[in-house]
Amino acid sequence: MPAKIISGKDVSASVKARIKTEAEVFTAKTGIAPGLAVIIVGEDPASQIYVRNKHKACKDMGFASFEHTLPESTTEAELLSLIAKLNSDDSVHGILVQMPLPKHINENAVINAINPDKDVDAFHPENVGHIMIGDYKFLPGTPAGVMELLASENIDITGKNCVVIGRSNIVGKPMSMLLLHKHGTVTICHSRTKNLPEITRGADILVAAIGKLGFVTADMVKEGAIVIDVGINRTAEGKVRGDVDFDSVSEKASYITPVPGGVGPMTIAMLMLNTLTAAKIFAKTI
Ligand code: L34
User: Fold this and answer.
1) Domains of the chain: which residue ranges?
2) What is the mean pLDDT of residues 26-36?
3) CATH hierarchy code of domain 31-115
4) What spacing in Å lies between the alpha carbon of 28 and ligand 1's midpoint?
5) Residue 31: is its pLDDT beyond 90?
6) 48 Cα: distance to centroid of ligand 1 (angstroms)
């Protein structure tokens, strides 16, 4: 039987509806509209699309959205000084610096400069530490979105073999930690992993976050596995496709997420949730 498609488009719409209602209550009570500042450096076309989608989501939520579009030539010092300004701006509750940054800017220096209470990506080491301990206010949007997709189908993670392909700070590492918190047995694979297909074939839940078009093929997937595709790649024809070979894998999996319309929209929904949380931290209501 072909897999059930978990629609990130649908799940994100219901998550956003919930956040919007909660935000309206918050704003009515405090007079504060949650505000998100997004900084984009350079002109990467994919980043421009993601930033535009974030801006649109803010508008839909009734949040204030402050976009800072900086040229590729921006220096690290200039970026740090903008962050310092936003850190002390009371109308800005969340700050997001779109990754990747140009090579001449040190990403860690930038992340470290963001006030952890405004760090809606949860990339700051203080927030990363909170996540590792399991006592956190912010979760990074993409892994949190994946957890929400699994929850939308009432998928119990306890005791399941969870295999995450990819070990980035943005996705692979926090993803593994969240699955572990839900009592999964987690394996992290990466470019140096030996016998990768053997490991992925043992997965009850397989999360692909490699960044390679169609990397996960049907022979790497167990019959009935739950397959989550975090990748966003462009085909030669310019179409957006994931790390999973959807057509063949969807014949074998029990659940699968599409690209586009899967994890991407969830990333944005969870960012909206974090922006509301950041506004609550500012208002001292949490
Ligand atoms: N700081 N940098 C920071 N925070 C993030 O959370 C991100 N990420 C990733 C890249 N850099 C970041 C995003 O926002 C990836 N990402 C992201 C956000 C939105 C979408 C995809 C990735 C998205 O909207 N995807 C849609 C449309 C895809 C398209 O047309 O290109 C989808 O349906 O998948």
Assistant:
1) 31-115, 141-264
2) 98
3) 3.40.50.10860
4) 31
5) yes
6) 9
- Ligand 1 atom index nearest CA of 140: 6
Give one DSSP letter per residue of the chain, joined into a string. Answer: -PPEE--HHHHHHHHHHHHHHHHHHHHHHH----EEEEEEES--HHHHHHHHHHHHHHHHHT-EEEEEEE-TT--HHHHHHHHHHHHT-TT--EEEEPSSPPTTS-HHHHHHHS-GGGBTT--SHHHHHHHHHT--S---HHHHHHHHHHHHTT---TT-EEEEE---TTTHHHHHHHHHHTT-EEEEE-TT-SSHHHHHTT-SEEEE-S--TT-B-GGGS-TT-EEEE---EE-TTS-EE-SB-HHHHTTT-SEE--SSSSHHHHHHHHHHHHHHHHHHHHHT--
Q: Annotated catalytic, 48?
A: no
Average pLDDT over residues 8-34: 98
For residues 165-169, average pLDDT:
98
Q: What is the pTM of this model?
A: 0.98
Class of domain 141-264: alpha beta
Would you call 98 a catalytic residue per the annotation?
yes
Q: Which tens digits make up the pLDDT trace of 239-278? A: 999 999 999 999 999 999 999 999 999 999 999 999 999 9
